[in-house]
Amino acid sequence: MMHFRGTPSRRTRVALWLTISGLCAIVASLPLLRSSDERVMRHAPAVLASVVAGFGLYVDEGVCADCHPAQAESYPQTGHARTLRTAAEWQLAAALAGRTFPDPERGTKYHYHFAPQAGLSVTIPERLGKNSFPLVYAFGSGTRRMTFVTPIPSRSGETVAIEHRVSVRSGQDDLVLELTPGQQGLAPQQDVEQFGRLADAAALVRCLECHATRGEIRGPGTPGLTPNVGCQKCHWPGREHVMAMRIAQARGVALEPRAKPTGLEQIRACCRCHLPSGADDELKSMPGHIRNVRVQAAELLQSRCFTQSEDRLGCATCHDPHAPVAGDPALYVERCLACHTAPDSVSCPVSPTMDCIRCHMPPVTAENGLSWHDHRIRKK
């Protein structure tokens, strides 16, 4: 008996065709089914070539040197380049080993120790025996003063800090140790405060605002911390600027340079940090007091040189923030004469071409033997 198979149905033929097509597609795409790592590695060189090194809106400070080589070359010699580092990295850390400082108010003595691996530490034998306290960070360039700060955890788990009771500054022949400003008369409330004042988390943030370009100190870590006052502290995060410049360069287009800040804008920018704590209260309570020479910006704003400059006189008129502070008075006399020898300008009747600084901006000793130039530019 013979059996005949029927012709496959239309539905069967369609299913068979789709199956064969799918298999062909899979076979054809096999060369493309590489791992994600392989694809990334293949395209990485082209992608990385257009990426600006950095973090978030910020770029690596070295990127700025590509277009601003002169400023990048002189910047490392400035105080701005030494506003924050670990205490062990401070170039004079070893010189502090073996030094002592008698506390003039508490009748105790601080003993300093240094080891290459452990870094700087301090003990107070009269109160805490051999228990040592680490000095972790050095805030300040040391030209005027440098203060050690040590992060510690609070009872609630947030990061606070101990601002060491003793600060260091450079003297004529040796390091000078003295009580940190603002710690006179403070009585310790707990053992750790024998080593200095407790600064809460908000105070630690304020310290970093003027001693670091960005980042924070959180426990033993420093997420995103860029120490010192770098380009992007004053000029703001640079990623958009760098990308715009690179795109313009690739297209052969010249961008308009940024407008130069006015005198008042410069002063305000510098005042974010160059304004001692409590300076506003001092100015209000002691107008004209000699200590106000420490508040150079407030003094400059009251000078006739500024008020009659039509907003042209600012901090950068005399001070290049990218270079070390000049110590030669002749350089500042040149700045004075740039205005005071112009047509219709006022010339000094006593000495029209020299001694401007000695007569009108003399150094004034305000406290602890430190002196500042009087920026009121007074008429004698």
A few lines on this structure:
By secondary structure, the chain is an alpha+beta fold.
Protein architecture, described:
With 380 residues, the chain is α+β, with helices and mostly antiparallel strands. Among the domains are: 84-227, no CATH class; 261-373, no CATH class. It contains 15 helices and 16 strands. It has helices at 10-29, 36-48, 61-64, 69-74, 125-128, 201-211, 231-234, 239-251, 263-271, 279-285, 296-301, 304-307, 315-318, 329-340, 356-360; strands at 54-55, 58-59, 84-86, 100-102, 109-115, 119-123, 132-135, 137-139, 146-153, 159-170, 175-179, 196-199, 212-214, 226-227, 363-367, 370-373. The strands form five sheets. Strands 3, 8, 9, 10, 11 and 12 form a six-stranded antiparallel sheet that branches. A four-stranded antiparallel sheet has the order 4-5-6-7. Strands 1-2 form a two-stranded antiparallel ribbon. Strand 9 and strand 10 form a beta hairpin. The longest helix has 20 residues, at 10-29.
Oligomeric state of the chains present here:
single chain
Give the count of helical stretches: 15
- Rg measurement, Å: 32 Å
Distance between the terminal alpha carbons, to the nearest Å?
135 Å
**What is the number of beta strands?**
16
> The biggest beta sheet, please?
6 strands, antiparallel
Question: What structural class do the secondary elements suggest?
Answer: alpha+beta
* Shape summary: flat
What percentage of amino acids are in beta strands? 15-25%
Helix-residue proportion:
25-40%
In round numbers, the mean pLDDT is 84
- The unreliable regions are 279-290
